[in-house]
Amino acid sequence: MTLSLAVEGGRMKRTILMVAMSALLAASPAIAQQAPATGHDAALAKRLGADEHGMRKFVLVVLKTGPTRVPEGDARKAMFAGHFANMERLSKEGKLVVAGPFSNDPAGWRGLFVFAVDDIEEAKKLVATDPVIEKGEMVAEYHAWYSSAALVMIPELHTKLESKAP
């Protein structure tokens, strides 16, 4: 399978490739259990929005440090509580399929979202609902991305791996 990356820059490509490969490796056992012996599961492909190549459109969002750092304290705690609640809501709605932080990135990269939406404008509307964006703690960079439709299964699979109850 070939993963098409619609983004420039070696570092971003490596990061995206790592996310995609991790997702595919995590999803492959579940897909194998559901797929018929021929390998193609038309019902699963339809449910995940896959095209004839097993791929679909996504929007990749890189969250970077914004212009307004919210100071330590209750306001910052509330902002991040809202950030996590917003991600949970978007995941339950089937829009957010992958999210996670970067570790102490000197270039200001804070986190990543992958949305199962067809265009950047829809992703911008979803990201605008996040308190870290509203407060200016982070800014978002958007990229159209074409990848395996199996990524849509990540939230479902994640709940099976999580041992801590929400």
From TrEMBL:
Which Pfam families does the UniProt entry name for this protein? YCII (PF03795)
Q: Which InterPro entries match?
A: Dimeric_a/b-barrel, YCII
Q: What keywords would UniProt list here?
A: Signal
Which residues lie in coiled coils? none
Signal peptide feature range: 1-32
User: Which Gene3D superfamilies does this one have?
Assistant: Dimeric alpha+beta barrel
- The reply on keyword Signal is yes
Signal as UniProt keyword = yes
* YCII-related domain span: 59-137
Q: What family is reported?
A: Belongs to the YciI family.
Q: Which named protein is this?
A: YCII-related domain-containing protein
